């Protein structure tokens, strides 16, 4: 991109409009790097290959969810039901993943399908009625949790096949599967958002819904795609989680929605829509993961962990925003 | 149905009601291929509502629309665009984060490799071609949000004409651009009509109508009044059709006043935007500010009002140097500002007419913490009546007013804060001719009561007619200040042209 | 409240007894088991059981007891969320002359009867087992449940009592795994990074977290060097004990707690003599005695 | 000029007053009444004085939180930290509420102060930096939880004085104290929002921040007030809760933020700012309370309860939105 025309910027006036894609990303990257350097100095165990592999594996589930929710937030919506979708997809997958029943593709497909179906339900209700996404997805959050409990009868679904457990626990070319899945999802989501028409429409719908409509974009179609996609990614996350802990947990994923949304927003996605990148979201997820890993490594007492965690997250985004307004 | 084949678009008996209030009542319109059909009417007459129905943004309550002889059925804008109807919207509809080119081709992106894979290279190239053809120099990769209102309007035009439409609706396409760009638009329109494209043209600028229109249809209060060939009408007849009465002289006579110096600006500048701006305005005086699109007038106004910073220079009010870092400072020093971008800076869409009007000086109707509701309502209704704001009730949301009436609300708000110095940035943008004369009268009243006015306008007749002196800008530099005697449209243009 | 409830039972004669139950969390497998046993027992004894989920919120629990009082049930069974915070529910029920039985854990206000076990005991059993296995010397890490919850506080307290008796046992680190398997797995992974082979034993305050720790240790190839003990004896944990991946779990008898709770409630409602306190002891489950617990 | 304007303004008169805000409110009121009727038919225990008093008492805490968050959402912000502020305020109040230490006003003031301080901290960070409210309040949510645990040393703070316990458990004129507090808070918040300058400014800031600024409104002041107020109401809710459960719980209030935000949005507050009423929020809170009370009364199995709860909430808001679009 060309250098930013400063005169134009000031004309619009308010400084926060400066929050463009480019600069926003760099700010948080800097904050992230700074944090990593501090941690490497404070604990020698931080900057080891084993620990980095660790962090990426741990981050993978939140990142998958955060990618999905990034799409949703870019269109100006919100999805609170992802945590519950993780549970439903996990339980459904687990129910089909007992050894010597179905080939491993069946639980995978069923889990994905569960996520996609719930996501589509969100999209359907949001586009057919005027109910705000917050309420719709809060509703499906509760419904989903109930479904997961009903399907599992309130008990963990365990005894899963080794091939299923490979998804979260195995390695390919020496790389843990969750990391491979993360890389693939990252590539696909990035391309979808940046290189395809539907990605363009997501930005348009979130940036100015009326303008998008007046340009002939069918809002409902875009929203359906986005919520379904988010559900599908939550389903994938549910499968990875279930496989990683080798059980389908009906209460898995509770509260995951906040972490995922936080990752997206830390990464520069704007809650008012129209702005955001998958790369930024990944960095947001990594930032959260690194903080929590670092606090464990340094054995900060658990009450203080929470305080420190909150302060660092705010601090990182303050740093980010400073680097934006300085320009 | 024996629809006459020559009409590409034929609308009959169209009605539309908003929550019990008729915005359109049994209106009709018949547009021929290759003609420019002007749709005229006062603010709130229902023109935009009508057009939004045609494009599929609103659903009519009843009525028939025939397009190329067949009933037109559109569920949404997607369908109407496909059928060959496109529209320049009165309120600029753009996605701020997307680039100029991406906005121009929004909804009809070129793809390559496979369906759905964006080909931005081609989009940038084509957008560049279109804009170059239009004589607009803009980097097509600039995000839309960095553009001035005028530039955005040019992009809107580019978007609508690049759609290969058979009918193009232009709802006040020139409200924010200056004469040079208007001339460009007209030559584009000429090319289009030669190719058989029909244009429905809405504007409050009378001279434009008689330059470009072949046929004129007039609406009043949501009802169809008449359709005439442009040659049958003159300005006065048209106005009386629109308003239902005659309008006396547009520009009331200026009263010469040798008042005290109200504001003086010395050597104001900001890097990359404007520099060397020096002027004084006396109480009761109107200083006009002229310049081409992008000359920097709005930026100067924003800086004086404290919305933007400036790097150098000083501002004195009543002879005392003041420091202005935010709008509150400016307002405390008695400065008021009517922005050219009313949607972004002018009003709160979800608040009522009354609440918007009183927002700037609520403290005058409060006792302790409490708002004196009765007093507030009384004052607001006085303002609404003075400015002839057309609204069903003062508790109507401003979002639901017609564009012109929104502008009046903004002016009302600023005036109510009783400023001693008022900056009007395109104050009559989108305002109908009747209301314009009201506003001119009002400005005269203001000056008569000793208020100093800085008036920015791209309508030269208005500037010449109203100003005591005119400051001319070219590319962010002050080229001259013309006295009333010197100021003609020609001399202004000569000083405004870049050297 | 015993006399008034017996009067009521007499008055209503053959009418079916109604018992209201509010349970700590129906997302917790152990509680679900207790609840299932209660349902089974209620059905067998021909009483109506209204069982609802307090979702770990003491406030909600109080509200549910209030609504039981408004419905004038014959007895209330409460599986308290908190020692202190759930106490007003007991006071309110007693004030309304409705008998209330605490099941599984205690409140500070004294209920009509108590059926359950002492959570601190489970912590003691677990830590004692670790001490014995390590010969009183070594490094231990502890995984807490949700900080501040009754079970977390008491299990920690029991474990610390034992730790004090063994100066050779060092508590290397302790953090919350929020009762959750995935969170604990992550926590264990991070501990492995920072302490690696220094860790000799893990005490997890419930089986879910224990299973998470086992998973992380197994992946890191450290399981055979580290002892893991947890509490609840859920089926997964029993299977793991059998396989030798989990060293021990502490069995809490859901069946007895559930059945005894209903039994006591019926006795009180009918005005029959009952035990004010029924203590069901925890039992240590290891590979040696696993067959007794796994069905 | 003195005579009343006859032209446009007054001629239509009051007939259309119902239009904009009115109908939105009526829709959800209708949904609420419909729900109540259904419940009265289905379970005779629902429509009893005892049960209605029950419901109002139970709703009071969520309503207090929802009032505060309504202010915040109207200005276009969000506050996720209210649940944690409940815990901090509760623990702080409890620490000063042991019998025979301080008069009851001290724990009350200290609890309120804790809420106000955390709220002001939110406001401060949000106005001084460009960090989005979502992140700031997510941070204080974590920090607050840590603080509550630190202050209470991770244990419930019990043994509170009778006079303190009266706040949540006592009655005045036969009305439970929490209901009285709710009524007073409702009146004060309604008046604040509808009748005062600061209330008007809240709508303006949320409706169009730039235009509000250009009208001379000091955005930062309004935001400071709003977040502080929200903190204060959360503090009050924390005191009522602590007194009601006669213990200061460090983990109290977890998840309360979602219920409070849901109440506000169900009641017609728009997440994009500028729209909302205290009355609507109260109805939103009552709706949630009635659903959960009704499900308990009808003995719906707990897993299905969640499903039903989600469906009814969405259903109620669909009904609401239908009644709005009909016109
Ligand atoms: N969404 C809406 N809800 C209620 N009333 C509306 C709505 N949109 C438009 N109106 C009303 O319909 C009438 C016609 O408005 P419209 O925008 O069509 O006028 P217009 O002729 O385009 O005026 P202008 O020249 O000022 O642009 C106005 O009185 C306006 O207040
Ligand atoms: N094509 C351009 N390339 C670079 N900078 C431009 C261009 N057009 C405008 N600008 C910058 O933006 C500023 C224009 O601001 P603005 O358009 O608000 O001026 P204006 O005189 O008020 O014109 P308008 O009629 O649009 O209100 C100029 O000072 C100039 O620096
Ligand atoms: Mg219009
Ligand atoms: Mg301008």
From TrEMBL, chains A, D:
Q: Name one GO cellular component term.
A: plasma membrane
Q: Which domain of life is it from?
A: Bacteria
Pfam hit, one: BPD_transp_2
Q: Which keywords annotate this record? A: Cell membrane, Membrane, Transmembrane, Transmembrane helix
* Compartments, record wording: Cell membrane
Q: Name the CDD domains for this protein.
A: TM_PBP1_transp_AraH_like
Q: Where the protein is mainly located, per its record?
A: membrane
Report how it sits in the membrane. Answer: Multi-pass membrane protein
Tell me the protein's name. ABC transporter permease
One example of the protein's molecular function in GO is: transmembrane transporter activity
Bilayer-spanning residue ranges: 26-47, 53-73, 80-98, 104-127, 134-152, 172-193, 224-241, 261-291, 303-322
From TrEMBL, chain B:
| Ranges for domain ABC transporter | 9-246, 257-496
UniProtKB keywords: ATP-binding, Cell membrane, Membrane, Nucleotide-binding, Repeat, Sugar transport, Translocase, Transport
Query: What highest taxon heads this organism's lineage?
Result: Bacteria
Q: What are the recorded GO MF terms, alphabetically?
A: ATP binding; ATP hydrolysis activity
What GO CC annotations are associated with the protein?
plasma membrane
**Signal sequence region:** none
CDD domains from the xrefs?
ABC_Carb_Monos_I, ABC_Carb_Monos_II
* Membrane topology summary: Peripheral membrane protein
Identify the InterPro entries for this entry. AAA+_ATPase, ABC_carbohydrate_import_ATPase, ABC_transporter-like_ATP-bd, ABC_transporter-like_CS, P-loop_NTPase
Give its localization.
Answer: Cell membrane
Extract the Pfam families matched here. ABC_tran
From the Swiss-Prot or TrEMBL record, give the protein name: Sugar ABC transporter ATP-binding protein
Species for this entry: Spirosoma terrae
High-level lineage: Bacteria, Pseudomonadati, Bacteroidota, Cytophagia, Cytophagales
């Amino acid at each position: 991109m060309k250098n930013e025309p400063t005169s134009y910027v000031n004309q619009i006036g308010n400084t926060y409009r400066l929050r463009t894609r480019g600069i926003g990303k760099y700010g948080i990257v800097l904050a992230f790097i700074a944090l990593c350097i501090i941690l490497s100095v404070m604990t020698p165990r931080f900057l080891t290959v084993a620990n980095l592999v660790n962090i990426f594996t741990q981050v993978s589930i939140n990142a998958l969810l955060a990618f999905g929710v990034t799409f949703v937030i870019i269109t100006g919506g919100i999805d609170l039901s992802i945590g519950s979708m993780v549970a439903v997809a996990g339980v459904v997958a687990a129910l089909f993943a007992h050894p010597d029943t179905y080939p491993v593709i069946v639980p995978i497909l069923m889990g994905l399908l569960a996520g996609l179906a719930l996501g589509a339900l969100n999209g359907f209700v949001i586009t057919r009625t005027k109910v705000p996404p917050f309420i719709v997805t809060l509703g499906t959050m509760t419904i989903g949790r109930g479904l997961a409990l009903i399907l599992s009868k309130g008990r963990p679904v365990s005894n899963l096949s080794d091939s299923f457990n490979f998804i979260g626990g195995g390695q390919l070319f020496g790389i843990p599967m969750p990391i491979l899945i993360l890389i693939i999802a990252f590539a696909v989501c990035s391309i979808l958002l940046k290189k395809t028409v539907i990605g363009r429409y997501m930005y348009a719908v979130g940036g100015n819904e009326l303008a998008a409509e007046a340009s002939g974009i069918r809002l409902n179609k875009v929203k359906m795609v986005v919520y379904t996609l988010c559900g599908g990614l939550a389903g994938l996350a549910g499968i990875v989680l279930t496989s990683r802990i080798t059980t389908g947990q009906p209460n898995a994923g509770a509260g995951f929605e906040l972490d995922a949304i936080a990752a997206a927003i830390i990464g520069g996605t704007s809650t008012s829509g129209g702005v955001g990148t998958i790369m930024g979201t990944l960095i947001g997820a990594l930032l959260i993961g690194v903080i929590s890993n670092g606090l464990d490594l340094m054995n900060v007492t658990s009450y203080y962990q929470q305080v420190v965690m909150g302060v660092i997250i705010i601090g990182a985004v303050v740093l980010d925003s400073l680097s934006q307004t300085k320009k | 149905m024996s629809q006459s084949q020559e009409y590409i678009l034929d609308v009959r008996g169209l009605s539309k009601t908003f929550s019990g209030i008729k915005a359109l009542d049994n209106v009709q319109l018949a547009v021929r291929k290759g003609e420019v059909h002007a749709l005229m009417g006062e603010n709130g007459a229902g023109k935009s509502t009508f057009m939004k129905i045609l494009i599929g943004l609103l659903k009519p309550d009843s009525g028939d629309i025939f397009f190329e002889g067949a009933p037109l059925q559109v569920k949404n804008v997607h369908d109407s665009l496909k059928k060959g109807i496109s529209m320049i919207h009165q309120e600029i509809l753009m996605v701020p984060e997307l680039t100029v080119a991406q906005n121009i081709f929004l909804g009809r992106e070129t793809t390559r490799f496979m369906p759905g894979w964006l080909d931005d290279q081609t989009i940038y190239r084509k957008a560049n071609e279109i804009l170059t053809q239009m004589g607009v120099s803009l980097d097509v990769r600039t995000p839309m949000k960095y553009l001035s209102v005028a530039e955005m309007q040019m992009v809107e035009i580019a978007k609508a004409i690049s759609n290969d439409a058979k009918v193009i609706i232009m709802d006040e396409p020139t409200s924010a651009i200056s004469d040079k760009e208007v001339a460009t638009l007209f030559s584009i329109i000429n090319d289009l009509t030669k190719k058989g494209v029909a244009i429905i043209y809405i504007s409050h600028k009378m001279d434009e109508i008689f330059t470009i229109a072949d046929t004129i249809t007039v609406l009043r209060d949501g009802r169809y009044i008449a359709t005439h060939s442009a040659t049958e009408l003159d300005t006065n007849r048209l106005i009386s059709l629109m308003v239902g009465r005659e309008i006396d002289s547009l520009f009331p006579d200026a009263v010469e006043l040798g008042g005290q110096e109200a504001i003086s600006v010395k050597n104001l500048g900001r890097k990359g935007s404007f520099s060397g701006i020096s002027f004084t305005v006396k109480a009761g005086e109107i200083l006009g500010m002229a310049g081409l699109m992008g000359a920097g007038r709005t930026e100067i106004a924003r800086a004086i009002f404290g919305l933007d910073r400036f790097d150098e220079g000083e501002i004195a009010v009543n002879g005392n140097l003041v420091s202005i870092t935010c709008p509150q400072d400016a307002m405390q020093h008695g400065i008021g500002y009517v922005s050219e971008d009313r949607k972004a800076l002018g009003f709160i869409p979800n608040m009522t007419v009354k609440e918007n009007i009183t927002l700037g000086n609520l403290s005058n109707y409060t006792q302790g913490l409490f708002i004196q509701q009765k007093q507030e309502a009384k004052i607001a209704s006085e303002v609404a009546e003075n400015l002839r704001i057309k609204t069903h009730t003062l508790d109507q949301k401003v979002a639901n007013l017609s564009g012109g009436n929104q502008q009046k609300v903004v002016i009302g708000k600023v005036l109510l804060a009783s400023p001693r110095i008022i900056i009007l940035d395109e104050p009559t943008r989108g305002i109908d001719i009747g209301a314009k004369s009201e506003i001119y009268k009002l400005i005269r009243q203001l000056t008569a009561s000793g208020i100093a006015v800085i008036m920015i306008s791209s309508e030269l007749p208005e500037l010449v007619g109203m100003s005591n002196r005119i400051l001319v800008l070219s590319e962010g530099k002050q080229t001259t200040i013309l006295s009333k005697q010197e100021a003609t449209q020609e001399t202004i243009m000569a000083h405004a042209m870049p050297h | 409240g015993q006399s008034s409830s017996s009067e009521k039972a007499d008055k209503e004669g053959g009418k079916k007894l109604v018992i209201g139950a509010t349970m700590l969390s129906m997302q917790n497998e152990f509680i679900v088991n207790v609840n299932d046993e209660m349902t089974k027992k209620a059905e067998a004894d021909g009483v109506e059981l209204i069982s609802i989920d307090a979702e770990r919120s003491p406030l909600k629990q109080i509200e549910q007891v209030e609504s039981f009082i408004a419905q004038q049930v014959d007895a209330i069974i409460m599986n308290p969320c908190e020692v202190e915070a759930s106490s007003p529910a007991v006071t309110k029920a007693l004030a309304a002359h409705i008998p209330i039985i605490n099941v599984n854990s205690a409140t500070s206000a004294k209920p009509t009867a108590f059926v359950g076990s002492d959570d601190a005991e489970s912590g003691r059993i677990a830590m004692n087992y670790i001490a014995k296995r390590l010969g009183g010397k070594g490094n231990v890490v502890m995984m807490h449940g949700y900080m501040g919850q009754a079970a977390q506080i008491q299990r920690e307290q029991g474990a610390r009592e034992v730790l004090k008796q063994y100066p050779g046992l060092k508590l290397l680190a302790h953090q919350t795994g929020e009762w959750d398997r995935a969170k604990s797995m992550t926590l264990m992974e991070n501990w492995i990074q920072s302490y690696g082979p220094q860790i000799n034993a893990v005490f997890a305050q419930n089986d879910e977290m224990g299973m998470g720790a086992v998973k992380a240790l197994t992946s890191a190839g450290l399981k055979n060097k580290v002892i893991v003990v947890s509490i609840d004896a859920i089926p997964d944990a029993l299977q793991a004990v059998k396989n030798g991946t989990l060293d021990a779990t502490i069995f809490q008898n859901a069946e007895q707690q559930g059945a005894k709770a209903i039994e006591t409630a019926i006795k009180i409602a009918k005005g029959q003599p009952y035990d004010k306190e029924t203590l069901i002891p925890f039992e240590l489950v290891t590979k040696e005695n696993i067959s007794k617990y796994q069905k």
